[in-house]
Amino acid sequence: MHTDPRVDAYIAALPDWQQDICRQVRALVHEADPSVEETIKFTDRPYFVLDGNICALLGTKDHVNVFLYDKAAVPDPHNIITSGHANKTARMISVYRDQPVNAPALVEMFRHIIAANRRRRTVGPRR
User: Fold this and answer.
1) Helix (H) or strand (E) holding 46
2) Phi, then psi, of 41 in degrees rounded to 5
3) How far apart, in Å, do the first and last CA atoms of the chain sit?
4) Domain YdhG-like, which positions (predicted)?
């Protein structure tokens, strides 16, 4: 697992319960593929990337947002996506205090996004 100290700093600055959620999501995205890289975009937001964006984290006042950069293509049979259903770039999962993270569903979604990123990379842009 390749971690970025800037992501560590972002997570450490959050309240304890948000740190727990962010650490769980971080571990799950790396479980989906150990080659996932971490970075910071837009000044302070943690992003997880592999051949394109996979997800990003954002701690808010009362929840943590997990942005899925899936081009609205990832199936959601467990109904964990909370908003952005019509968005063509990303959708969002909001996780509140004491709400469990659906780890199996999230890993499945991350793997789907990674596979789609790889397909786009090998196919290249359409002409």
Assistant:
1) strand 45-49
2) -125, 160
3) 36
4) 18-113
Phi first, then psi, for residue 46 (nearest 5°) are -70, 130
What letter represents residue 19's amino acid? Q
CATH topology of domain 5-123: Aspartate Aminotransferase, domain 1 (3.90.1150)
Instruction: Evaluate whether 40 touches 4 at the Cβ level (below 8 Å).
Output: yes
pTM for the model stands at 0.92
Structure tokens at 66: 């997990």
| Residue ranges in the chain whose pLDDT is less than 50 | 127
- The encoded tokens of residue 58 equal 């954002």
pLDDT of 71: 77
Where are the alpha helices (H) located in the chain, listed in sequence order?
Answer: 5-12, 16-32, 103-123
Q: How far apart are CA 87 and CA 47, in angstroms?
A: 19
